[in-house]
Amino acid sequence: MAVPKRRLSHSKTRTRRSHHFETAMQFAVCANCKSPIPSHVACPNCGMYKGRQVMDVTKKLRKIEDKRKAKANAS
Ligand SMILES: [Zn+2]
């Protein structure tokens, strides 16, 4: 197995890691509901992407509501 010939100095390690930082996420504005959304992602608020409906955002809410009703009926 290949083995490094010399140990890396702290400076060399830190210089390499100087690029290992996170940058703030860039947000676009939804054309439909004007809420800030990450670019190239369907809007989590209204479910629109490039002017068409791509996901049902009420599905999750309905599921939660059904669960709550079932719980209320049980007790
Ligand atoms: Zn939207």
Average of pLDDT: 91
Q: Work out the radius of gyration.
A: 24 Å
Bound small-molecule species: zinc ion
Query: What portion of residues is helical?
Result: 25-40%
Main beta sheet strand tally, sense and closure: 2 strands, antiparallel
Query: Which regions have little confidence, pLDDT < 50, spanning 5+ residues?
Result: none
Total DSSP helices: 2
Can you list the strand order of the major beta sheet? 1-2
Strand content: 5-15%
End-to-end gap: 66 Å
Shape: elongated
Secondary-structure element pattern, one letter each:
HEEEEH
Give the helix/strand class.
alpha+beta
Write the layout of secondary structure elements.
Blueprint: H1 10-17, E1 27-29, E2 36-38, E3 48-49, E4 52-53, H2 58-74
Antiparallel strand pairs: 1-2, 3-4
Bound molecules: zinc ion (ZN).
